[in-house]
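Final report, Chapter 2: Outcomes

The project's central promise was a pipeline that accepts a single protein chain and returns its three-dimensional structure in a standardized token representation, suitable for archiving and comparison. That pipeline is now operational. To close this chapter, we reproduce one record exactly as it appears in the project archive, with the input sequence first and the structure output second.
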Amino acid sequence: MLGAAYGAELERGELRLQLLPERGEISVYYYEHRFPIDPATYPDVLGLHLERLEQRLGDDEWSLVELRSIITAFGHLPPRDATDGVAREERLREKEVCKRRLARLYRRVPPVAECLAANVAYLGGSSGEPESFEQLHRLLERQAYRLAHWQVAADEINYRRFFDVNDLAALSMENPRVFETTHGRIFEWITSARVDRLRIDHPDGLYDPLARCRALAERLRATALPVPNGGTDERAPQPYLLVEKILASHEHLPEDWPVAGTTGYDFAQVVNGLFVYAPAEPAFERIYQRFIGKRIEFDELLYGCKKLIIQVHLSSELTVLANRLNRIAQANWRTRDYTLNGLRDALTEIVACFPVYRTYISEDGISGKDRCYVDWAVAQAKQRGRAVSAGIFDFIRALVLLEGLDSWSVNLRQQALQFTLKLQQYTAPIMAKGLENTAIYVYNRWISLNDVCGDPRRFGVSVAAFDHFNQDHARHWPHALLATSTHDSKRSEDVRARIEAFLLKAIREAKTQTSWLNPDPAYEEAVMQFVRAVLFSLQDNPFLSDFRAFIGPVSRYGLLNSLAQTLLKLSSPGVPDIYQGNEIWDFSLVDPDNRRPVDYALRKRLLSDVRTIVIDEADTPKRLGALLENLKDGRLKLYLTRQTLMLRQRHRALFQHGDYRALTARGERAEHICAFARRYETDIAVIATGRWFALLAAASEGTALSEPAWDHTWVEAPAAGDYLNALTCERIVASETEGSACFAAAELFRCLPVALLLRRAN
């Protein structure tokens, strides 16, 4: 907690001892932080210089007797580490009685108050006289906590933190009393119908995520919440729980979790990848290598970043795990020769090689996927940790997978299970800090891929992969959130489409030349000066002149990408989530930039404007053309969002429960189209968007939105007949072409680069 070394802060007088007269409490203050003094150690303060007080009180024997009685009572309190229930209750009760007596005596007898104030001042020491702090130091040494420089926590700590934030201690949700207490207010809100949906923040940090989800689901079911949207459809998730689970590109949310799905990071990365031109990967790899002057293998970078986090930022948590592991090893003659250092080194390698955030092994069993993840991590760790005995790796693997424990004592089996559960809690923050907060700030080949749940190695997503993702969501997680921006996004949805840069946070998160732990002001200032010279010098700046000429059309293509991904989010299987402010263009970067106050007044004005566009009027295409012409003002994105959400509201069952069918595009520009249909009973919606607009414009020798750009290109229709474009009010006919019903792409995208068609049986 301390901003400098303990000894330095002590001798500067920054640790201030105070007695609160009105409450009879003694505490140590460090700026705004208060550290309570153990009541059992109050006699160290109250018992000083009693002979002087005795001389002052004279005949007032009662006051001195009362003070001595209070000191004795404090000194005979049960110890703070007592586990006996009776003793704990006695301590809680009697310490408050003693405090009230002390406050009353302090208030009624001025000589006692003056004496105690003098004692506090004496113990507090005098700046410039180091020896005067000796007794305060001794008093602090007797407390339940140890005051230390905040950097000490990286090596020594005995409580779980929120990542490496020392003053945010994690709670033990596996403890039923903690669970009930921390959720008490939430359960009250649910019972009173003030809250009817829950989102669990980063469940991978929990001791047992599945157990907590089940406990919450059971409590929510007991409240008999209404079905979402006030309907009666039993297929809607009941209760509605979401988890902020970050999935690797090859990972799936366990299907036995009683949740509606994730909060949408996975969708954000899939839909973003749809607009990355995968064939350009070799060219960008060459450009990136030439620019940085070397080749970076991302797997090696990630491994190194995770080891950095383990060794520097979360080393103390590893020490706790290694000590647990050592106690287990020492209890068996077959493993007792494994040293603490060897066990710690092996753990470091296994955690650094772990391929996902965490596994979910519990006493209820182990999934096949979790077993594969553990086997992979151990095999890779063996290859990298040649200096460590292979037997240690095998021992840890068997322990984590709970194998061969039948002959162990009940107590030792329980220790093994607790170690596995604690280890799973540890791998998650290591991956989060190593990947999201370090590696993706170092590896910048194409930074729109560098975000939460993203994988910089996955350069682009095919339409087929996007369809597969949506089909899987429609089958298993039809009510999961669909996000394109969140509070944790490194760059907002529109920034990812335009690719802009950021400074101080990026270079500190990269941890190569400077970091939050050890900042290098000279390096940081040099970077700032460089960027100012490159971007903010208006005269004699050839780079900026070239950049402005380049960024104009690129910016427009980026906004078209954003329009397309907005429609895909609003119409894919799931529940679309719109992060605050992203109703129009938003170019915010990582927090705190993306948590600034939103200009809602501007959005209200723009909404009033787009509300005047009525899609069944003759001038609708002309007015939409004006919005497209003035794309930068954000009205078209707001219009698209409003129209699509209104359609979802009118055809709720179609978008909540409709199946998902990929629609094939064919012809000259087929690769530039993503299209699919949603069908429920007799209702059909068709969603089509363009992509790779810059390449499309170059190929058509014009703009990406001209009709010639889409010549000789068709999109499969789910059925022949008339369709209404809900965005433009155009009537579009799906006619027979080469033996199947198709839309002409030029008709779909005549007014806008996206289309939302509706066909009803009547």
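Archive annotation: The CA atoms of residues 154 and 313 lie 5 Å apart.
This record, like all others produced under the grant, will remain available to the consortium after the project formally closes.
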